[in-house]
Every structure is written in structure tokens, then in C-alpha cells.
From TrEMBL:
Name of the molecule in the record: Acyltransferase C-terminal domain-containing protein
Protein's UniProt keywords contain Membrane: yes
Key words of the record: Acyltransferase, Membrane, Transferase, Transmembrane, Transmembrane helix
A GO MF label: acyltransferase activity
Pfam families assigned: Acyltransf_C
Keyword Acyltransferase: yes
Transmembrane segments: 207-224
UniProt record, GO biological process: phosphatidylinositol acyl-chain remodeling
Family per similarity comment: Belongs to the 1-acyl-sn-glycerol-3-phosphate acyltransferase family.
């Protein structure tokens, strides 16, 4: 993930702000069209997070949500406004996910308990950034209202019988179902990674030079992490140095 310049946060805006600014500036100037997957809730809806959200709602005289957590508006507003200034954002895709029969809370549910939903429903809305409020306060309020809509949307979704669960039609929207070709492609991808993992594991234990290569790679990543804070920050530092050279030349 670090090699792909993922944003790692401490979930404290005081320390995360500079990281966000550096990363977003890099995204805007590097020449690639990055897509940022953002969870305004900050975490998954586990029992601990749900209890924290409930206490937050009580302290701020808000309604306690049953299907979502209260969103964190500060980071969302900062990122959107930052990307607006850099002219690096045109649209936001609002995604709501509903599970048809059972909800997988963590990898443990899937791997140990065998919990796996038979169908997963996605409602995706494409929102033009120009249609969102311009001010910080108004943008934060917009996000809060959006989450209220999500809570009600999911409430109606889960009130339906499991076999009939689906989201209400999005205005001017279209329905998509996974085709057989896409399903076959996903099976091939899973098969590829399973075989690749087995081959790497075999090579690590049975082929000396592969084991040596893995150890050297881990050591290099450890050194980069200690000195620069991660591969992504090394890349950003080199990129910024190149940008300064271009400006002076």
C-alpha cells in the first residue's frame, strides 16, 4: 500500500493535516489521476466503534444511528477544499453498501466462521463537485445530512425480507448485475493470487536465493521506514526535489 502512496493516518487531525496536505499536493502534481477511497466514519461499524458513536451522539445531542456511524466532517472538508484549490477533483462518488443476508464484520468472520454474504448491493451516485456547498461549515453540514439519508436508506433496506432486499431506484439510475464473464474473471484473479501465494511460500522455504531476496527486501523496507517514514514519503521527497530542480532550471 505504501508503494501505491496510500494515506496512513493517526486519526487525529492535528497530526494528520500535514500528511494530508503533502499527499494531496503530490497527487495533484504527479501527473496521474488518483482515486481516493474515503470512509468519513473513520472505521468499520464494530461494537466498539458503535459505542463510541453512541456516546458522541449523546454528548452532542444527536440521534444515535443504528446502521451507520456519525461521519467525521473535519478531514472530509479539508480534503475536498484542498483538492478544489488544486483543481484536482471533478466528481464525488457516493457509495452505499447493503448485505443481502449476513454482514461480514471482519476477516475472522470470513476465514474462521465461514460467514459470507450471498449477495452484496451497491448504490453508487455520481455527484458533481460544483453542486456541493462552497463553504467549510456548509460542506460539513452537507455530509451530515448525507449520512442521515444513508441511515434511513439502510433502514428501509434491512426492513425488507432477505430474499427481496434491494435499494430503492436512484433517480435516473440504472441497475447492473454481475455478468457470467465478470464472475469468471474474478474466479481467475482469485485463482492466480492463490497459486502465486503458494509459489512464493514454496520458494521462500525451499529455494535459498528467494529466501535471501525476501530478507534483503524486508531489511530495505525497514530502513526506508525508519529513515523516511515509508516508501511513499521517499517517493514524495524525490518528486519534490525534481520539481525544485525544474523550477530553477
Amino acid at each position: 500500500m505504501a508503494c501505491n502512496s496510500f494515506i496512513f493516518l493517526d486519526r487525529s487531525f492535528g497530526t494528520d493535516r500535514s500528511r494530508l496536505d503533502s499527499m494531496l499536493d503530490y497527487y495533484a502534481k504527479c501527473g496521474f489521476n488518483y482515486q481516493i477511497l474515503l470512509y468519513p466514519e473513520g472505521t468499520d461499524k464494530c461494537p466498539l466503534a458503535t459505542e463510541r458513536s453512541r456516546k458522541f451522539a449523546e454528548e452532542n445531542e444527536l440521534v444515535h444511528y443504528e446502521y451507520v456511524l456519525h461521519p467525521r466532517t473535519t478531514g472530509f472538508v479539508h480534503m475536498i477544499q484542498n483538492m478544489r484549490k488544486a483543481k484536482y477533483i471533478d466528481h464525488i462518488y457516493d457509495v452505499t453498501i447493503g448485505f443481502g443476508d449476513c454482514i461480514v464484520q471482519s476477516e475472522v468472520d470470513f476465514a474462521v466462521h465461514g460467514v459470507c454474504p450471498k449477495d452484496v448491493h451497491y448504490q453508487v451516485r455520481k455527484l458533481n463537485i460544483a453542486d456541493l456547498p462552497k463553504g467549510d461549515k456548509e460542506l460539513g453540514e452537507w455530509l451530515v445530512e448525507l449520512w442521515k439519508e444513508k441511515e434511513e436508506k439502510l433502514r428501509r433496506f434491512y426492513m425488507l425480507d432477505r430474499k427481496n432486499r434491494m435499494f430503492e431506484n436512484t433517480p435516473n439510475g440504472r441497475e447492473y448485475e454481475m455478468s457470467n464473464s465478470v464472475f469468471a474473471g474474478q474466479l481467475l484473479i482469485n485463482f492466480f493470487w492463490v497459486i502465486t501465494t503458494i509459489m512464493w511460500a514454496y520458494g521462500f522455504f525451499m529455494i535459498p536465493y528467494m529466501c535471501t531476496f525476501a530478507i534483503i527486501s524486508c531489511f530495505l523496507f525497514f530502513c526506508i521506514q525508519r529513515h523516511w517514514g515509508g516508501v511513499e514519503w521517499l517517493a514524495i521527497q524525490k518528486f519534490n526535489a525534481q520539481q525544485r530542480v525544474k523550477k530553477t532550471s
